[in-house]
Specification:
With 196 residues, the chain is an alpha+beta fold. Helix content is 55%, strand content 13%. The chain is built from four helices and three strands, in the order ααββααβ. The termini are far apart.
């Protein structure tokens, strides 16, 4: 009889211990699930950011094709398509140029009209969109289209993340010697060589 009581008592105490252990197991599994959900949310944020960056690059490609077609259509005005204004100088509003809408234009005037119209479209379709065009003799033009990446701009204001450095941006944008000089690492550039 004494042995039976001891067995019952040991069963009760082992049940109490196992109840506490199962509660601990549940807490650990909830913690692991929460960490997994946070990782999934981070991956989702990155996917949205990279899809937006891809959209900006696609828009820049379409805009470069536009100016390329305009340059090819006005080969006599090729030299007039040079536009080497710095990033800071392009921050203002672009006035509408109507000089070629009502009168016959020379090749140079048409090039100025094309540039003004195209720069306005770039500014409207990309955040703080800016351009830099360098003519390469009679064979074509080097075109850089630059914009401010809002996701990187917000991240660089709120953190000390050094993954996107000014050196990385300099590789994408026109050489510093050309005077474009993007202000910080949130500026993204796409380079295009247009053959005439």
């Amino acid at each position: 009889m004494l042995v039976a009581q001891r067995v019952r008592i040991s069963r009760r105490s082992s049940l109490r211990r196992s109840r506490g252990i199962s509660l601990l197991e549940v807490l650990v599994s909830v913690l692991l699930a929460a960490i997994g959900l946070l990782a999934l949310a981070g991956a989702n944020v990155s996917a949205v950011r990279y899809s937006k960056m891809s959209q900006y690059r696609s828009t820049a490609t379409m805009l470069a094709q536009d100016i390329g077609e305009w340059i090819r259509a006005n080969k006599l005005g090729l030299g007039s398509y040079t536009y080497t204004t710095s990033w800071a100088s392009q921050s203002g509003t672009i006035a509408d140029d109507t000089s070629c809408e009502t009168a016959n234009c020379t090749a140079a005037t048409l090039a100025a009209y094309d540039l003004a119209t195209w720069r306005k479209v770039v500014r409207d379709q990309l955040p703080q969109g800016s351009v830099f065009i360098s003519i390469q003799g009679a064979v074509g033009a080097d075109v850089w289209i630059a914009w401010r990446d809002p996701a990187v701009a917000n991240a660089s204001e709120n953190s000390t993340d050094s993954r996107n450095t000014a050196a990385d941006t300099a590789k994408e944008c026109p050489p510093t010697a050309l005077g474009f000089a993007p202000p910080d690492e949130s500026v993204r550039c796409s380079f295009f060589r247009i053959n005439v």
